[in-house]
């Protein structure tokens, strides 16, 4: 390597020895830092790129240009995968080379490094092309040979050329292929044929020519001169038979010509030597493999021309076959498989060039050993043949302990922790069927006793062979990622405060329960007045209360039942119902009693109660989980309306009311813009003169679906949200505008009374809304009286006094409405800037028939007059009530007896 930090990628062996090894493989290892685009390389890169004397910067620029396409591919691909790229490269001298680069990403695509190898494969590509051309020429030769050439394997014919078909008088080669040789060779010739074949024990050995009689398909028998050669056919031993019909009396020269042509056209080097090793024959394949012509080789010793010691006699004594490292004439290394056979005049050697396949094996081994993924190869019986370093590291053992072991003995278990039977393992299934098993998650026991989770892929190495198959197993350690995923899954499905199931998991359990064959009970629990605890004591105390509530609920449910927290102070229990409403009600009451026990937090004993809505879903309930939870929520809301601390079962009428409630609440937001709101006015008379002195503006809503909606229904809906502020401002502008027009049209000094809700007193824009409404209508401020209920004023008298004082400065009048229902005192009335007091209608009803009611009304009138307030009685419905109020000194009155609310254009 040329850089100091290269020791990280290419350490462990001596640098000069490592460079020498790579040079033998015509390959240059390199690395590339993605963070700073910084390459490093081994010696030999300059020679590979045709720039042996180039400066470092020039060589760096040419190298980056060379590997840039590979970098682009790997940046957009996952780490760990090996990528290859071949490209044409022109050297500075104009020579064109074919370079192959292969690399793998270590780390991420931003700060990681690429480890790679670049090889000059120009000669290999030309060698493969030459070998392919030679094989094609050999096939042409065999097919057009005048001699019969056929092959038999396992005593059956597997190939026959056209000359064989003609010689045996067959219709086609299909009639010959598959026939046992006993059908083709005459019986008296068969023993001799078998004996000669038995002597051919090594590939490349051949028999001497012998006369054999063959059976023709027309029944005749013909004599032929036959030569048998031991070969490999489809990877297995076979015999190639070359036969010449001697009845044709072809000259011996023709036979020799064809034999010489066969030798010249085979793909392996066929070399003949004398007994002392001098080369006497050198075919074309030998010239191509060793880079020496026949003229250059013949007459020299075999060891000199192949670049390595070679003694044919000694090789034959050692078995006749060996693998050796030879050298081409240009000095490049060759991996050669050598077979030797003896001839009367010496020896014949068959040298097969396996350089390309060996180099591919070395590249494969280098890449596999560099992988972070474990790779194991087994034979067809499941015995481990090889394992890369990553496999040993992941399994917490050594390669020596892995290699030779039986996969069936490995302790493996599934995601439930149960042992995986041998037949169910991915390796066994692939061995038995050849079918791949992809990304199977299995657990294994490491050598140190710890468990590890693996994502395993199993593939056959020999798909074309019969079972059982040898296999390659690749696996990745997903223990950490699995733990992270499980933690994220729990965080995604559980409430972080209580550890209970959250809404997502509650719906999942509820959906499963509803699809079972059993009734299900859903209890929706909402803590009453929990907001008071949070607001007064802080969220820390509130969180502790919620945690204790979750624990108590969990302790009370049975096995298989689910407790969840939906958020805030809302909890859910999914219980086995057994179609028994009574049991569900008892469970709800038990939950409430248990929650009512004091909760000790920071030295305080706190008590909580709950409102519980219940849904009983029979086994055939069509509702979804979300529907059932919604209906339980509806029932809970109904329980709160009953007075809190209650239990209520869901029924369809509840849902209809809630649906109407929701629809009205949504439509109310657009009611003003759609002109659905209008004002009705009820007259107020002076009891002394009988004249109408004022009207009370009452808001009305005509809904497009439900018709007239009572204010008692839609005003609370508006107060539940901020809609009341917009509606209140709209009502004030409309009433001011309509009354101003009425006063101008009738020339009357009529006053307008308008109600303010409790929520409007909290509106910071109330003062501006009143001012703008009066200004737009041109209505004098003194002709408008704003009425506020007694309960709203008493909720926060100090704040209410401030708001009313600001309104009083505009010049408007102020009234306390529904007096007698809010427990106000004389002192409070004195502090508020009021002009009018309205007696609640509950005191007026029956006042002329009940002496006690008369006494109360008389006292209220006296109280109001004592603080100089005008008194108005509302709800007058009879003449007797009106007469009594006049005698008691009441100032004004309104009610159905005096006049019903009506639109402005219908006021009398």
TrEMBL record:
Domain EAL intervals: 661-908
Domain PAC: 435-490
Domain PAS, residue spans: 262-300, 360-407
SMART domains: EAL, GGDEF, PAC, PAS
Gene Ontology biological-process annotations: regulation of DNA-templated transcription
Domain GGDEF: 518-652
Domain of life, per lineage: Bacteria
Protein name as catalogued: PAS domain S-box-containing protein/diguanylate cyclase (GGDEF) domain-containing protein
Lineage, highest ranks first: Bacteria, Bacillati, Actinomycetota, Actinomycetes, Pseudonocardiales
